[in-house]
Amino acid sequence: MNTKHELKELTLLFDISIALNKSKNIKDVLHQILEMMARYIGMDRGTITLVKKGSSEINIEEAYGLSKEEKARGKYKVGEGIIGKVVKSGMSVYIPRISDEPQFMDKTKARKKINKEDVSFLCVPIKHEKEVIGTLSVDRVFNNNLSFEEDIRLITIIGSMIAQALKARQDELEEVERLKEENERLQSELQMKFNPATMIGNGQAMQVVFNLISKVAPTTANVLITGESGVGKELVAKSIHYNSLRASKKFEEINCFGISETLLEAELFGQVAKDDDGNEVVNAGVFERSHEGSVYLADLAEIPLNLQTKLLQLIQEKKIQRIGSKDKIDVDIRLIAAGNKNLERLLEEGKIIEELYFLLNVFPIYIPPLRERKSDIPQLIDHFIEKFNNEHGLKVKRISTSAIDMIMSYHWPGNVRELENCLERACILGNTGVIYGFHLPPTLQTPDSSGAPERGPLQSVLAKVERELIQDNLKLTKGDMDAAADNLGLTAQQMEIRIAKYNISLDKYKLKQL
Fold first, then answer.
1. Which residue stretches of 44-136 are H helix?
2. What backbone phi and psi angles, to 5 degrees, belong to 55?
3. φ, ψ for residue 48, nearest 5 deg
4. Torsional sign, CA 506, 512, 513, 514
5. DSSP E strand boundaries for 350-476
6. φ/ψ of residue 62, rounded to 5
7. d(CA 467, CA 469)
8. Nearest to residue 162, comparing CAs of 44, 75, 34, 9?
9. Would you list the domain boundaries of the chain?
10. Which of 46, 197, 275, 341 could make an SS bond with 34 (beta carbons 3.0 to 4.6 A apart)?
């Protein structure tokens, strides 16, 4: 190799090195490298392929002299064609005339209209340590006077230079793909978790709610959820969001109760302030952070009138203005508001802006209290027992009949939330396998609900326990008094005395098994 040729080669390698070091995105510089090679060795076409990790797929990552369509057709398998052969063997291949090589597939169809006898093809592996991660290939006009050994040496050096950067690019793409798959998995889990079909409630009242959720979720309509505290308004709001077209975007919840007007305004609309050095500090609010997503306002009645006015402007103009700033910011959010008070009465009293109320009340959903849908309670009990077994590592298998009777007769002022808290306590106390009535909170321990005689505290508690154990064993034995007595370590006579004492009907347990 003469001095002039060596200088030209060193200049090419130096320029490639500079380009690789300056570029923040390897994909941007790969085409630039191929253009440099084209000028230096006079190639007509050049490709850089990348092996997809964990598979046998090889795709063209960047190309020179190929159209977009031709590049897209460049898909190979390890061992397939010349490129697949180079990846599999890790060895370079030189073909003087592609017309003489039956393994040359020309999948890109880039050489369809040219004389293949005039085309030479050279392909070298791109290796990271001992792993072949891709190939670098060159097309040029056949010339019997050129040394292909020198070309292979030069292109191999270039391949080594871009290998590290290409491996980083491959790792980056794989990480993006992994994060994408993880995001899709989480979104799928969230949709399942907050899918109306998987929410608890077989009764007619909740079926109406589920139907409304399925109707409104795919739309962009604002929703107003009403119902007593603890009925599950947040669960409905999440179900609407995660079954909408905004499911991949952010869902923000803010409870307006007990927050001062100043703090609430800053939290909702954001704030611009100055630090000690006079620099501007921007704190984005809930609405700005949730752009293209959904915001759940947990207690509409607690929002001051001044902020209700700003909320009305947000709905009408789709813009917000941070505290301390004159600029308006475009925001696209879906509002889901909730209230556990009589909003119509507050509207009449002037505590809610009428126009805001009607804009939010485009699609109202009322969730009935638990006392109006007691048919859902058995299903809720099963759900919460399973939940707390998993969360706390418990082994509760069932709940006794008398405990169910106590739960069913209670009026549940705290609704589903109170029932959940009650069952968590009972599961922890009843970790022997069965939840009995005495595991339930004192608020449920009434003579009417438990059937226990009204005596002093000790006698009352003992009677409740004894009665419940007898009832539970009668249920297990399908009303067989002798078998139940044997389970409890009692004689038949002792069992008869206690059944009479507590006025227990054996027929009741026999009939339940029919």
1. 68-73, 81-89
2. -145, 180
3. -120, 120
4. positive
5. 363-366, 398-399, 434-435
6. -150, 150
7. 6
8. 34
9. 3-175, 194-368, 373-512
10. 46
pLDDT tens digit sequence for 456-493: 566 776 777 788 788 878 877 888 888 888 888 888 88
Q: What is the spatial distance between Cα 500 and Cα 502, in angstroms, rounded to a whole number? A: 6
Long-range contacts of 117-123 (CB under 8 A, 24+ apart): 117/142, 118/142, 119/44, 120/94, 120/95, 120/96, 120/148, 121/82, 121/93, 121/94, 121/95, 122/92, 122/93, 122/94, 122/95, 122/148, 122/151, 122/152, 122/155, 123/82, 123/83, 123/86, 123/92, 123/93
Q: Determine which helix (DSSP H) or strand (DSSP E) holds 95, and give its type and residue range.
A: strand 93-95
Class assignment of domain 373-512?
mainly alpha
Separation between Cα atoms, residue 91 and residue 83, nearest integer Å = 10
Helices (H), 194-227: 204-216
Please count the other Cβ atoms lying within 10 Å of the Cβ belonging to residue 449. Answer: 18
- List all residues 6 or more positions away from 272 whose beta carbon is below 8 Å from its beta carbon: 280, 281, 282, 283, 322, 323, 324, 325
Nearest to 307 by CA among 288, 289, 321: 321
CA–CA distance, 130 with 113 (Å, rounded to integer): 38
Domain 3-175 has CATH 3.30.450.40: yes
Residue 456 CB burial class (10 angstroms; 0-12, 13-18, ≥19) = exposed
- Share of the chain residues as helix, strand and coil, in percent rounded to the nearest 5: 55, 15, 30
CATH code for residues 194-368:
3.40.50.300
What is residue 440's DSSP assignment?
A: S
pTM to 2 decimal places = 0.57
Phi, psi angle pair for 196, to nearest 5°: -50, -35
In angstroms, what CA-CA distances link 413 with 51, 281, 325?
A: 63, 45, 45
Give CA–CA dist 66/69, Å, rounded: 8
